[in-house]
TrEMBL record:
Its main location: membrane. This is Phytosulfokine receptor 1. It is a peripheral membrane protein; Single-pass type I membrane protein. The chain crosses the membrane at residues 631-653. It comes from Glycine soja. PANTHER family: LEUCINE-RICH REPEAT-CONTAINING N-TERMINAL PLANT-TYPE DOMAIN-CONTAINING PROTEIN (PTHR27008:SF507), OS04G0122200 PROTEIN (PTHR27008). The keyword Cell membrane applies. Keywords: Cell membrane, Cell wall, Disulfide bond, Glycoprotein, Leucine-rich repeat, Membrane, Plant defense, Receptor, Repeat, Secreted, Signal, Transmembrane, Transmembrane helix. PROSITE patterns: LRR. Residues 34-69 form the Leucine-rich repeat-containing N-terminal plant-type domain. SMART domains: LRR_TYP. Pfam families: LRR_1, LRR_8, LRRNT_2. InterPro entries: Leu-rich_rpt, Leu-rich_rpt_typical-subtyp, LRR_dom_sf, LRR_N_plant-typ, Plant_receptor-like_S/T_kinase.
Amino acid sequence: MGFHGFFLFAILIPYISFGTSSHESQNLTSSSLNDLEGLIGFSSCLESAIPDWNSYASPDYCTWSGVTCVGTSVVRLELGSTRLMGKICESLVGLDQLRVLNLSDNLFTGSLPNTLFHLQNLEVMDLSNNHFEGPINTFICSSLPRLQVFKLSNNFFSGEIPGNLGNCSSLKHLSINGNDLSGSLPENIFLLQNLNELYLQGNKLSGPLSEGLGKLSNLVEFDISSNEFSGILPNIFGSLTRLKFFSAESNKFTGQLPASLVNSPSLQLLNMINNSLGGSINLNCSAMKNLTIVGLGSNQLRCPTPGSLSNCSRLEAIDLTGNHFNCGIPVNCNNLQSLTEIYLARARLHNLSSTLEVLSHCRNLSSVALTNNFHNEEMPQPQGQNLGFSNLKVLVLSNSQIKGSFPKWLSGCKMLQMLDLSWNHLSGSIPSWIGKLNNLYYLDLSNNSFTGNIPQGLTVVLTLQFRNLSLEGIIFAFPFYVNGNVRNAYKKVSSFRPSLLLSYNKLEGPIWPGFGNLKGLHVMDLKHNSLSGLIPWQLSGMTMLEILDLSHNRLSGEIPQSLIKLSFLSSFDVSYNELHGEIPEKGQFDTFPPTNFEGNRGLYYRHDTSGFMPSPPDEARAQPHHQKLEIIGFPFLFGALAGFLITIARSFASGWVFS
């Protein structure tokens, strides 16, 4: 039974023995005894206690946390997010009036007992976000006629989806996503006529999608993302007249989108990212009047049918990244006044000037990603006018080898929070007005050919002066990638660390002391430029700084001792400069490897135990060397002379010298 269960039982013996409960003048029936034993048994299998389940002050189980009764019958057991550990005992079958069982977001392990599926009155079972394992019970729906909500998501269940799930005729919500399930969808699952929400994403399910799906006429949300489904999508979406959300991202579907799908009047979200779909994009927005989010990136699609996307007047976000367009901008923004996000990276687009002109008519655009297009084109510089991106918060136009100077039209983008123009061939100076973009907190101009000084205006960017940034960061409809790196995927702007990235340019001049005002900056990367002068001691004012890379410049002087105050600094590199003096000790500096200081002939450690770079200046090394010769040399000469005289004296005394 375990200590917790025994303790509970000991507390309740008087109440059981005398046939009374804490309800005034109510007798314990056989049903309530079963409930009591069921709860005690459940507690006995736990490795962690539920605090008020073992209190002398509250022996009435109907008052225990997570327990709801009707009369003396337990009808709800809700212990989600209480960090419970252990297994689920079969004793729960004693709660024969239980309607809601919620044990989600805990640390339960093991397999599910068979008796758990004999609770005939159960309507909601939520065991999601635990560590359950093994196959899902094959008799799951044999004795659960009233089950409406069944959640097993984010566990470690394996094997196939039980075929008798179709017997849960009352089921409205089924989520078994985030497990290790395999095989194909059982045909019986398409008998669930009341099903509204079906979540199967994040498993290893495979095979074609059956036409039986069309029988689920009440389906509203359907997610099969991140599986191994293949083949052509069945043309059954005309039967799914209530479907609003369909996501099949990261599967192996081929062919074109079926006609019933691209004409669905109910659909609001369509996500087919990362498949092998082909043909032209042929969404019929005249029919798809409710469509707001479209994800068709990373397929093999060609340019859309003219006008197919331009009539989607409610469209808010579209991802067409990584397709084979080889054309100009595939949308006309005149009718897309609701559009806030557009992602067209790696889409083989050309004519940057025309693309920006078209997009400028989408007045509510806040996020634009055009990475890896327009190769070797010129950055447009409209004369006497801005392009009108008044609501733009995110612009990524990197990895395109674009030539020209810094775009002047960005001066009108007062809402800009994130700007990435890295890996191009932009040249000239960085304009001083960039410091007036007071919402800017992520700037990447690395790997270009910018010259001149770092704009002093960057030291007064208002957003970066606050230690605790409180940005109204937009939430992306699709994961946002940095430099195409899947590991750096973010769902909102504020997930990016506040950064100033100017590495691999031709910048000259000093590092401004005013950068110390940027208390909210996390990353400062200035490596591989021609910066000169001292490292300002004021940089210690950047109290949230995590990365500071000043390597491969022409900086001189000493490393300021004040930098040891940067308690969050996890990476510091000043290699290959012209620095001298002692390398600071204490604080985070004790964690940085010697390679981060190499290439500076005058730098040295005060106490070198590594054998690497014990390199104080020559004059610092010379003094101890002479002292050593002076101390050792004089005693040696004195001792040698004394020894010689003693030897001669003994020789005279013995007469040996005359023999």
